[in-house]
Design brief:
alpha/beta, TIM Barrel, two-stranded antiparallel ribbon, globular
């Protein structure tokens, strides 16, 4: 199993300097990936969990590519309908080229109606928009001069450069726990990447994805991945406002992960450390690497 760390790009620990330092530490500790979240705007009702806002993931991934050498740089997840798909395809391809093929495009349809209203994007159409936008991006990455005739975009001879490193384009990991996300993962994704899914949700999702693959003729299911919010008990620290976190000492968290997710075929586990400062996050990812990862891998 591979392991990744969400950077302090939002919530209480948000810090431009922290993003760089945590990424460097994660790479040095042997983590496989670092992750960025996405919302263009956030409503006040979610400020306690998400903080004042999100630093732009596209700007950050390009900068992170210049200060790291090995770790993958992923998004968990971009709200696909919130941006022009041709512009997003170009930004991702450029970042992928700069990083030597290390970009993972975590993609989702979004859930925050207030954000969609602020951006002037029809909330009820977010699923259809996401599907079309992903198809546009794949065409731009893999075809020399693609043409597209869809519901939201129509174009011909849309030449885009540079192309991503891989001939098939940037890796696409589909976020979301709902059945629609599972269908999208089979149709458009290289991986299914739900967040904080329970063992029951994972088990039923895996079964459904395998059924969808068989029905559609897809040879193999998308990779099975997961992101968890975790708060390690390391000294006297104020509690996190995220009630859905897995909490406890490193040994307890390791046992909980092993009990809840061993045997489910997880290929990648992304960890979002719910610490109030990036300095404390560095302590947590060090403890997680030292006291949790080996135990989970053995399970």
């Amino acid at each position: 199993m591979k392991f990744g760390i969400t950077l302090p790009q939002y919530a209480q620990a948000v810090s431009p300097e922290g993003c760089v330092e945590v990424a460097k530490v994660a790479e040095r500790l042997g983590y496989d990936s670092v992750w960025l979240a996405d919302h263009v705007v956030t409503p006040p009702t979610f400020a306690s969990a998400y903080g004042p806002g999100f630093m732009d993931p596209f700007v950050l991934m390009g900068y992170l590519a210049s200060v790291t050498e090995r770790v993958d740089i992923g998004t968990a997840v971009i709200v696909v309908p919130s941006r022009n798909p041709l512009a997003v395809a170009s930004m991702l391809a450029t970042a992928d080229k700069l990083s030597g093929g290390r970009i993972i495009f975590g993609a989702g349809a979004g859930w925050d109606r207030e954000e969609f209203e602020a951006l002037g994007v029809p909330f009820e159409e977010r699923g259809a928009m996401t599907d079309e936008y992903l198809a546009i991006m794949r065409a731009l990455w893999t075809e020399e001069a693609p043409a597209f005739d869809g519901r939201y975009f129509r174009f011909a001879n849309a030449v885009m450069a540079p192309k991503p490193v891989r001939p098939e384009g940037v890796r696409v990991w589909i976020g979301g726990n709902a059945p629609a996300a599972q269908r999208r993962a089979v149709r458009s994704g290289d991986a299914w990447h739900p967040s904080n899914a329970s063992r029951t949700e994972r088990e039923s999702g895996i079964v459904r994805i395998r059924e969808l693959c068989e029905a559609s003729g897809r040879a193999a299911p998308p990779a099975m991945t997961l992101r968890l919010d975790i708060r390690l008990a390391l000294g006297n620290r104020p509690d996190t406002p995220r009630p859905w976190c897995i909490r406890g000492k490193p040994a307890e968290v390791a046992e909980r992960i092993g009990t809840d997710y061993a045997g489910l075929g997880l290929e990648h586990l992304g960890v979002d450390m719910a610490d109030p400062t990036w300095e404390q996050m560095v302590e947590s990812i060090d403890a997680f690497a030292r006291d949790v990862i080996q135990h989970v891998a053995a399970l």
